[in-house]
């Protein structure tokens, strides 16, 4: 079996060599068991010398394939490029920052041999700040109510995929990619195991609060139109409330005559309704924006340099 390791790299010059050594070691261990390995590294428009490191690795090790983007297109695009360039019967996607312990690959391969199409390594949140753990937990609670696929906390982009899963994921050509959800959407027999999360070896995490919020919103919006439904129901309930309130006012006016005071009621109603309408417009806008991006049909990434010849595959 040929196993492809797919790793997106963004400003990872500090750890890349060590990462490659670590996976090479695993490759050496798996070779006697009849498994070959190739390494597909995607340089996501790094601003440091990641590409130089990759070229050096490729010169030293024939099994290294690298793809370098013309600019930073984001991790999702890098993952997609990695999957497109991987030729293995199984593909392991993992981060290049050594937070995904390479030792687990052997275990994934064993589980793959037992017939699972997806082997998901699920990290425990040890070492994370408490606030991050709690918000993550809350987020997944909420999101799993909203989306059609089941998303699991900690089950991210460290997983082994069989060829048919990879092909299925590549068949999903949407521009807005939320891999976690796409993998879940594809399905096929899957199994999960937990591992202790390692602290980042060097470099720094590229996530900030804003990024996390955006990512969170993507998770909710990419998978169905339930937020639109929610907006609809909110509108209907407000309409009902307004109807009841109007009826009450009319009855009161009939019984006691018209009473002019009501400034507070009017202001509250006007501002609250304006707010609700803005939110609904926002929800509609989010979906329209997504349609806009999809319709443009732009490529997910542009390649600046690569040692893989299969350039025709790059046209989506
Ligand atoms: N990454 C990428 N493009 C980006 C940001 C990150 O390819 O724009 C890669 C990065 O090199 C790493 C992986 O995605 O291999 C995870 O990134 P990071 O460690 O910053 O995220 P975290 O581990 O904090 O979730
Ligand atoms: Mg990381």
TrEMBL record:
Signal peptide: none annotated. Belongs to the glycosyltransferase 2 family. The chain crosses the membrane at residues 231-256, 262-284. It comes from the Bacteria. Keywords: Membrane, Transmembrane, Transmembrane helix. InterPro entries: Glyco_trans_2-like (IPR001173), Glycosyltransferase_2 (IPR050256), Nucleotide-diphossugar_trans (IPR029044). Residues 4-168 form the Glycosyltransferase 2-like domain. This is Glycosyltransferase family 2 protein. The keyword Membrane applies.
